[in-house]
Request: fold
Amino acid sequence: LLNAFGSRVKLSDQLKKGPVVLAFYRGAWCPFCNIELNVLQRSLTHFKKYNASLIAVTPQRPDKSKEEIEKAEYTFEVLSDLDNSVMKSYNLYFEVPPELHELYKNRFGFDITDYNGKDRLGLPVPGTFVIGQDGIILSAYAKTDYKMRMEPEDILEVLKTAR
Reply:
């Protein structure tokens, strides 16, 4: 996938360096996602003790991710899944129904397509995967309740056993 600065990032290349914490989030507009990403950013030094890197995946356009990275001062990769293929391959993809999208726009003044692009209403169920250097998923956490996220302590417990 492309990162916020237009460079292609491959999971296989990142795994050559060590385990990967792969976090799927809905976008910069989501307050729960922002809390999670800030907590993960603060946890990076602990992850690095196990040679692990963090990659966040979102359906939002790279320009929106770039704004988010610069504002929040994130030091991890934020990748844009513009065709929803990665979300789908992890079984996290869902499509916001048009009537719900209209409700968001009319009642709350929020348009998902301002972030994702024209006619793109796909979002991931927020999920976190800890992937060992051998490419095997060591832990997976995804809940349809978007307020529920994997805790950094749980990620660290998995990383302690990663090879």
Summary: The first strand starts at residue 2 and ends at 3. The longest helix spans residues 31-48. Helices lie at 11-15, 31-48, 62-72, 85-89, 98-108, 113-116, 152-161. DSSP finds seven helices and eight strands in the chain.
